[in-house]
């Protein structure tokens, strides 16, 4: 537990459920990333946590930004980011949003299909465009499936079209899946990108940028490789495949930048059993799937808990949220155990909840207000 957050919770006793996030920790994470991958430009993936104090701090540090909507672009501009340092990274954009971004000075856009490329040619003429390719998401605890990206053969054809249509064929991007626990996922993806670079060079198109996306993991219940291991694997693969003609490198960390900077504080609403002799207790919290813990879907992201009784005797639990929806059960199969002493009214903390929590909270399902946020 981060000591700064622990003393904030002790001194201010904020109403639950709430997120308390240490913005200094975000700065440390930015520095760790820069140290692990000094040649890469960092584009913070705004969707992980778009709070103004985070964008302000990162903008001040010289970070660039990966935005998925015109609204996120506006938030970056308000935080002092230059339009030239914002990438419109969503491959599915309204043309009105493309127009607004281009008018504001954004010149870097993602796409993964011909119809999207047409929109860019019409509404962002001359812009730098990069094509997202499909890559293996094995090893990712929150995979992105086939929703984004296209096959390599299509990417090549589209880059040739981009040049013919007056756009600047800038580079290739991929995303190995979020909470990626295997460094080899990046190595395999880089090999694929390098082949596209070579083939396009033969076709007279010189790409200049590799966008390695996000995916860098946060420690939840289980250990994950350190960020330096990802940096080493990525630089090793880049050097192997591109030699000393290294292209510009972009990374788009979301979870890694903010995940371990935040803690959710929650109150236990009820501890009960389904039968007197049932060893499993049900622990209902005042935050659940609809309060922002969307990534507990499929028990994919397994948060670590702190309680007032850590170290005392524990027993098996099912952990659920407060709403009257049966999908609002967080963990039933992941072998969670919590102290036997835990009871209604106790406060528990969910660690490393700074990413992908606040913006997932529903408006007022069952009347519950969205998660309160404290940036310290
Ligand atoms: C969500 C997203 C990211 C951030 O991914 P993390 O796994 O949180 O690092 C980066 N790039 C794009 C295009 C994204 O959609």
UniProtKB/TrEMBL annotation:
CDD domains: PLPDE_III_ODC (cd00622). Keywords: Lyase, Pyridoxal phosphate. This is ornithine decarboxylase. Belongs to the Orn/Lys/Arg decarboxylase class-II family. InterPro entries: Ala_racemase/Decarboxylase_C, De-COase2_CS, De-COase2_N, De-COase2_pyr-phos_BS, Orn/DAP/Arg_de-COase, Orn_de-COase, PLP-binding_barrel. Pathway: Amine and polyamine biosynthesis; putrescine biosynthesis via L-ornithine pathway; putrescine from L-ornithine: step 1/1. The keyword DNA damage does not apply. Its cofactor is pyridoxal 5'-phosphate. SUPFAM superfamilies: Alanine racemase C-terminal domain-like (SSF50621), PLP-binding barrel (SSF51419). It catalyses: L-ornithine + H(+) = putrescine + CO2. It comes from Falsiroseomonas frigidaquae. Its EC number is 4.1.1.17. Residues 24-258 form the Orn/DAP/Arg decarboxylase 2 N-terminal domain.
């Amino acid at each position: 537990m981060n000591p700064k957050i622990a003393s904030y919770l002790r001194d201010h006793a904020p109403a639950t459920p709430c997120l308390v996030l240490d913005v200094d920790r975000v700065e440390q994470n930015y520095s760790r990333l820069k140290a692990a991958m000094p040649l890469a430009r960092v584009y913070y993936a705004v969707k992980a946590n778009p709070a103004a104090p985070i964008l302000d701090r990162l903008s001040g540090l010289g970070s660039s930004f990966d935005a998925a909507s015109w609204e996120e672009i506006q938030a970056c501009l308000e935080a002092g980011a230059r339009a030239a340092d914002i990438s419109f990274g969503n491959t599915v954009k309204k043309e009105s949003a493309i127009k607004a971004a281009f008018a504001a000075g954004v010149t870097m856009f993602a796409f993964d299909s011909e119809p999207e490329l047409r929109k860019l040619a019409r509404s962002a003429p001359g812009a730098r465009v990069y094509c997202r390719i499909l890559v293996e998401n094995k090893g990712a605890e929150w995979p992105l499936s086939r929703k984004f990206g296209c096959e390599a053969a299509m990417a090549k054809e589209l880059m040739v079209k981009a040049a013919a249509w007056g756009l600047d064929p800038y580079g290739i991007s991929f995303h190995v899946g979020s909470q990626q626990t295997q460094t080899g996922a990046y190595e395999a993806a880089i090999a694929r990108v390098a082949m596209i670079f070579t083939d396009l060079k033969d076709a007279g198109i010189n790409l200049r940028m590799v966008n390695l996306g996000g995916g860098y993991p946060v420690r939840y219940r289980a250990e994950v490789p350190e960020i330096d291991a990802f940096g080493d694997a990525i630089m090793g693969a880049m050097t192997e495949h591109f030699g000393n003609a290294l292209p510009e490198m972009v990374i788009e960390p979301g979870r890694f930048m903010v995940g371990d900077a935040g803690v959710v504080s929650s109150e236990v609403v009820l501890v009960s059993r389904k039968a007197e002799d049932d060893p499993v207790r049900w622990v209902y919290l005042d935050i659940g799937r609809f309060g922002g813990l969307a990534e507990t879907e499929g028990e994919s992201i397994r948060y670590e808990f702190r309680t007032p009784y850590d170290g005392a005797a524990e027993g098996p639990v099912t952990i659920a949220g407060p709403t009257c929806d049966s999908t609002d059960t967080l963990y039933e199969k992941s072998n969670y155990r919590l102290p036997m002493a835990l009871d209604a009214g106790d406060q528990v903390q969910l660690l490393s909840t700074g990413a992908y929590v606040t913006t997932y909270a529903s408006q007022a399902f069952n009347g519950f207000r969205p998660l309160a946020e404290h940036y310290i």
